[in-house]
Amino acid sequence: DTEVSNQITLVEDVLAKLCKTIYLLADLLARPLPEGVDPLKLEIYLTDEDFEFALDMTRKEYNALPSWKQVNLKKTGGLF
């Protein structure tokens, strides 16, 4: 019974990790990346504060830029 309970907890832990949508900037700059994170869209996992710190602009300003500028900013911020 205890073994079954431990397995259930483990499944819950795995699901929690896979469903996580916000990560610290340090977690996204480290390798390997957390499980389930899309390496091409690291900026979407940041808090607004970390986003502005890493890319030096708001999400609204970033989203208004052409894709090539977004990519260059992500490279500069270490998010590519």
TrEMBL record:
One of its GO terms (molecular function) is actin filament binding. Residues 17-80 form the HP domain. The keyword Repeat applies. Gene3D superfamilies: Villin headpiece domain (1.10.950.10). InterPro entries: Villin/Gelsolin, Villin_headpiece, Villin_headpiece_dom_sf. Pfam families: VHP. Its main location: cytoplasm. Coiled coil: none annotated. The keyword GTP-binding does not apply. GO terms for biological process: actin filament severing; actin polymerization or depolymerization; barbed-end actin filament capping. Keywords: Cytoplasm, Cytoskeleton, Membrane, Repeat. It is found in: Cytoplasm, Cytoskeleton; Membrane. It is a peripheral membrane protein. One of its GO terms (cellular component) is actin cytoskeleton. This is HP domain-containing protein. It comes from Macaca nemestrina. The lineage of its organism: Eukaryota, Metazoa, Chordata, Craniata, Vertebrata.
